Amino acid sequence: MTPSVAAASSLAEELIQKIEQKTAVIGVVGLGYVGLPLAVEKAKAGYNVIGFDVQSSKVDMVNEGINYIGDVVDDDLREIVQQQKLRATSDYSFINEVDAIAICVPTPLDTYQQPDTSYVESSAREVAKYLHPGMLVVLESTTYPGTTEELLKPILEESGLACGKDFFLAYSPERVDPGNKHYNTKNTPKVVGGVTPNCTKVAASMYRAVLEGDVHEVSSPAVAELEKIYENTFRHINIALANEMAILCNKMGIDVWEMIDAAKTKPYGFMAFYPGPGLGGHCIPIDPFYLTWKAREYNYHTRLIELAGEINNSMPEFVAERAANLLNKEGKPLKGSTVYLLGVAYKKDINDIRESPVLNIIDILEEKGANIVYSDPHIPSFKRRGKEYRTMELTQESLQKSDLVMVTTDHTAFDYSLISRFAPAVLDTRNALKTEAKPKLYEIL
Ligand SMILES: NC(=O)c1ccc[n+]([C@@H]2O[C@H](COP(=O)([O-])OP(=O)(O)OC[C@H]3O[C@@H](n4cnc5c(N)ncnc54)[C@H](O)[C@@H]3O)[C@@H](O)[C@H]2O)c1
């Protein structure tokens, strides 16, 4: 072993020991849907955790023990804040105090549908200012293969410290599935790929100390970056196939949901995906296009991803057209009709409207002159194109006052029996009334 390899190994062993003895201080940059649950799990595992966010409102809420993320248990957050295991700040100098840091900032697409890595870059620049020997940095944001080594590493090395020698760098994708009752941050297996074997070893030891799920080590950050995008691309493409089937089944007069239920009886080689009004959230509509962009560097065109995107993006138009056709059966035009949307969150039982296809449906229907009202127990209000929308209580009266009710998100809290009894006409994009008596005018996606 050369002296520099020996020095790096002893720095790694030192950090692993701190991690195992729970004396390591852990930082989390970005306290959103991914970062806050991660910070809470680390604090619950016994570490002192410092969270950072650029939004002072989130920092204040964390410091007051107030939870704002659905997957975090209110009491857990309150207790760890009271026990001083977790505190939040908007001052990057906190990095002076930490031994390891996880970066969980947004990775959206820009207006040209290209990766916007500006949040990763700006947080990395701040981390570089306070990076110190023996520290571990893990990127958790979803991104294209190459980001950790091509973008993050050079920025961090501007500090004068060398990766793998003076500090450790790894990529570990986050798999949190908001609203999932069974799998959460703690019990979901984690993939880790470090820039050097020591980087992988240190990062894996941190996750093993905190999580119950398996920690699967891979040979490089790029493998971990790509496997995450592959997971989400798999969903993106299979959802597009289900949506294509829904469009075709509608033409053929076949119930797509019944057809999928039948296909699902095959015990191997088939996994059920369902159609819907379009894709939403910060992951499935976005992540595959990080790969599409990167593939161009290799002169490769990811045709399947783009085609799936086209089909998924066409769903709000398809749903709006179905709404117009359904109203037409009652002799009503869209213009002037009240369309009552049940659910604006992009999926069941969560409070997230990012990229929600329901917002596109609203735009299309309003452009055609419909009046839009909505109920969503998880979204009290939201703004769209400068207009503010407020949720209504789902009642017999609110249903009867509308011309068409559209089930856009199948929240558990909705009273489907009430909907089936009092809605004048229903377009059910989620098969939510599956077990209910159907209203006279009822259509399923
Ligand atoms: N939400 C999910 O279900 C999910 C699942 C898996 C992976 N991911 C990935 O995790 C990453 C984070 O997603 P999210 O849903 O938690 O996003 P989010 O918007 O909920 O949270 C990100 C947080 O980072 C903060 N932030 C922005 N710029 C910052 C900066 N320069 N320094 C510090 N903080 C900054 C924001 O204020 C915000 O609170 C993304 O790459 C996303 O693709 C998300």
TrEMBL record:
InterPro entries: 6-PGluconate_DH-like_C_sf, NAD(P)-bd_dom_sf, UDP-Glc/GDP-Man, UDP-Glc/GDP-Man_DH_C, UDP-Glc/GDP-Man_DH_C_sf, UDP-Glc/GDP-Man_DH_dimer, UDP-Glc/GDP-Man_DH_N, UDP_ManNAc/GlcNAc_DH. Pfam families: UDPG_MGDP_dh, UDPG_MGDP_dh_C, UDPG_MGDP_dh_N. The keyword Oxidoreductase applies. Keywords: NAD, Oxidoreductase. Residues 340-435 form the UDP-glucose/GDP-mannose dehydrogenase C-terminal domain. GO terms for biological process: polysaccharide biosynthetic process. The keyword Oxidoreductase applies. GO terms for molecular function: NAD binding; oxidoreductase activity, acting on the CH-CH group of donors, NAD or NADP as acceptor; oxidoreductase activity, acting on the CH-OH group of donors, NAD or NADP as acceptor. NCBIfam families: NDP-sugDHase. Belongs to the UDP-glucose/GDP-mannose dehydrogenase family. This is Nucleotide sugar dehydrogenase. It comes from Aneurinibacillus aneurinilyticus ATCC 12856.
